[in-house]
Design a protein that fits this description.
binds flavin-adenine dinucleotide; seven-stranded mixed sheet; alpha+beta; two-stranded antiparallel sheet; Butyryl-CoA Dehydrogenase, subunit A, domain 3; 4 domains; Butyryl-CoA Dehydrogenase, subunit A, domain 2; 22 helices
Length: 645
């Protein structure tokens, strides 16, 4: 990114979007934050990443919740105004997904009368590190000489300025930043944070001495919101861009003398794009509404992170198929390649998706959503609470039998029959039935004890059920708010058919692979007594969804909201936005002329010619005069990019 962009971002307080107004921030809600990331993400993943990080898991969030008054008063206004640029270092060479296994260690010391820590650390992949002026650092703290009066040993989070300031008057000599990684040539700042036996004064610990050892809880509490907002927002941006621009391109691009949007093979991809867009938009809207109610739902944020980034990736992949060579040839005309290239970043960061699906979603969800399990675990932890344990165990068993009854009765009573006009009512009944089925399957899962958490083939499928239930309910919720949109019921139909089918397949997958004899068949008999009932989206559904995003329609307008359309008429997304209705009108005239075996009128010919001119522009790709990608290959941040120095 060029210096003007950095300047703009800082001046307009993009780094302080979620920071409360009292500290000089913009005080945006989660949804406000999400739509800004979304708007930028479809155009520049590099800028969106740069802005998202300080607004999600960063020093700002941690200081706001846990900082001492001195830390808050000094840092927060500076962060809000972009005077300080933050980064946060958790990941190291040996500790990626298993972040708690970090090797970065410090011991409490007292030097020249100042209480502090000597810490050795090596962090990598840290976004914004090469330009950061304050580095959030997580490390394991030991206190062999018992110098701590409050706080304790354990993971601790400190804020290290790269230059001396009132909180750290001597700076942090030995702190090294500036080395860069090159994440897929996307162009955002990412690099290392290192130091050997660096002295960090106690005043640098976020929250001060009393917060020593509480770093892990602080991180987990603050991670949830960012994980559920910024990464899903990037995925929504990708999906909306595909609906708007790829859907439009498919209408304009012709092969075999017809728009490719009319070919069933392409419609298969386009209908996926429409469906994924609806699903992620709905999930985002419902999650942001939950946050606005003051909830901090860790399981839902994990579901959001996994489901939205996966669907964003699939929409982008399908988009690339539809674009053909126009998606592959790099250059300013190619609106999709930057999004495609940056997709693996959102899959990997803040809990890589394989880990999130197979370990976090169900592992966390199981104990948190069960009405008695947490109490039972607590009774075990209490040691000699036999009576409490027996009571909770009885509750767990009673609950299991109730769930079993509900699962089989709903499985028999809720029929998969023609839907009539009440599509949302029909799917609401299916979701209620599938929720009952899930509750019973989860009880069966308990027979594996703690082993279920590491049986990742199974827990991944359990996560799929839970995730598809959340996504399904959010589709119904979003439809309720937007049912005036003509044609939205068709998209809802396809989206819900997809969720029901995936839940069914996950249940069959668990029951076929359940390791305890007889449990699998029991699970199947009490969930799907009539056997498989849900089918994948039909061709009719696909045709309807594909048409709705490739022609001017209320659905296309709803799902394309918030896509950045440049005012520059040479911009490809701008051209496509103008071309879709023109192409439809022109093709309508041509078809009418063919049917009537007549020539177009002068007025019709004018529209046909205009559409043709625009089409000719849109099918061109950039001719690269030199290898411009090599320009991105520098390995250190140029000084002019180093903000605040
Ligand atoms: C561009 C970029 C920016 C980043 N920014 C930051 C940052 O600002 N601050 C920061 O601290 N970190 C940052 N990270 C680090 C990021 O959070 C880690 O990359 C991530 O946690 C995964 O760690 P890893 O890359 O070492 O992969 P690994 O941990 O080696 O994982 C490799 C694969 O194994 C899977 N896996 C691991 N364990 C399990 C399990 N138990 N079950 C199932 N699957 C499992 C993972 O899902 C993944 O697919 C960034 C990374 C990238 C690439």
């Amino acid at each position: 990114m060029c210096e003007q962009v950095w300047q703009f971002i800082r001046e307009k307080k993009f780094f302080g979007m979620v920071m409360p107004k009292k500290w000089g921030g913009l005080g945006f809600s989660g949804h406000g934050h999400a739509v800004v990331i979304e708007k930028i993400g479809g155009r520049s993943p590099a800028a969106a990443t740069t802005i998202a990080v300080p607004n999600s898991l960063g020093p700002g969030e941690l200081l706001n919740h846990y900082g001492t008054p001195e830390q808050q008063q000094y840092y927060l206004p500076r962060l809000a105004h972009g005077i300080d640029i933050p980064c946060f270092g958790l990941t190291g060479p040996a500790s990626g997904s298993d972040a708690a296994s970090m090797r970065d260690e410090g011991i409490v010391v007292k030097e020249n009368g100042v209480l502090g820590m000597r810490v050795t650390f090596s962090k990598r992949y840290i976004t914004l590190a090469p330009v950061a002026t304050v580095v959030g650092l997580a490390f394991k703290l030991a206190d062999p000489n018992k110098l701590l009066t409050t706080g304790k040993e354990g993971i601790t989070v400190a804020l290290l300025p790269t230059q001396a300031n009132p909180i750290c008057p001597n700076g942090i000599p030995g702190l090294r930043t500036g080395e860069r990684h090159n994440p897929l040539d996307i162009g955002f700042m990412n690099g290392t944070v290192q130091g050997e036996s660096v002295f960090i004064p106690m005043s640098a610990v976020i929250g001060g001495e009393e917060r020593c050892g509480f770093g892990w809880n602080m991180l987990m509490e603050c991670l949830g919101e960012g994980r559920g907002i910024s990464l899903p927002a990037g995925a929504v941006a990708a999906a909306r861009l595909c609906t708007m621009a790829v859907g439009g391109y498919a209408r304009v691009r012709k092969q075999f003398k017809v728009p490719i949007a009319e070919m069933e093979g392409v419609q298969e991809k386009l209908s996926n794009i429409g469906m994924y867009t609806y699903q992620v938009v709905a999930a985002q809207a419902m999650f942001d509404a939950v946050l606005a109610n003051g909830e901090k739902p860790p399981v839902l944020s994990a579901i959001m992170k996994h489901e939205c980034t996966e669907k964003g990736r699939k929409a982008t992949n399908d988009g690339m198929d539809v674009m053909g060579g126009a998606g592959i040839s790099r250059g300013p005309m190619n609106f999709l390649a930057p999004v495609y290239i940056s997709t693996p970043v959102s899959i990997t960061v803040e809990g890589a998706n394989a880990l999130t699906r197979s370990l976090i979603i169900y592992g966390q969800g199981l104990t948190r959503s069960h009405p008695h399990l947490l109490h039972m675990i607590k009774a075990i932890q209490d040691g000699d609470n036999q009576e409490g344990f027996n009571k909770e165990l009885t509750n767990v068993i009673k609950h299991a039998f109730t769930n079993m009854g509900r699962s089989v009765t709903r499985g028999l009573a809720v029929q998969v029959v023609p839907k009539g006009n009440d599509i949302s009512g029909y799917y609401e009944a299916q979701m209620s039935r599938l929720s009952a089925n899930f509750a019973f399957c989860a009880d069966v899962g308990l027979t594996m004890g703690g082993g279920i958490k590491t049986a990742e083939f199974l827990s991944g499928r359990y996560a799929d059920i839970l995730s598809n239930l959340y996504m399904g309910y959010s589709c119904l919720w979003y439809y309720e708010k937007n049912k005036h949109v003509e044609g939205l019921d068709k998209v809802l139909d396809m989206a819900m058919a997809d969720h029901c089918f995936k839940i069914q397949e996950a249940i069959f997958g668990i029951s076929s692979n359940f390791p305890i004899p007889l449990m699998g068949p029991v699970m199947r008999a009490f969930t799907f007594p009539r056997g498989r009932e849900y089918a994948e989206a039909s061709d009719k559904m696909r045709r309807a969804v594909s048409q709705s995003i490739t022609k001017p329609s209320e659905v296309r307008a709803l799902l394309s909201q918030n896509v950045f359309v440049s005012k520059d008429e040479k911009n490809r997304v701008n051209q496509i936005s103008r071309a879709v209705s023109l192409a439809c009108e022109a093709d309508g005239y041509l078809a009418a002329c063919r049917r009537a075996k007549r020539q177009p009128t002068a007025e019709e010919q004018k529209v046909i010619d205009e559409a043709e001119v625009l089409r000719e522009l849109i099918i061109q790709v950039f001719l690269s005069p030199f290898s411009f990608l090599s320009l991105c290959a520098c390995t250190r941040a140029p000084r002019c990019w180093v903000a605040g120095r």
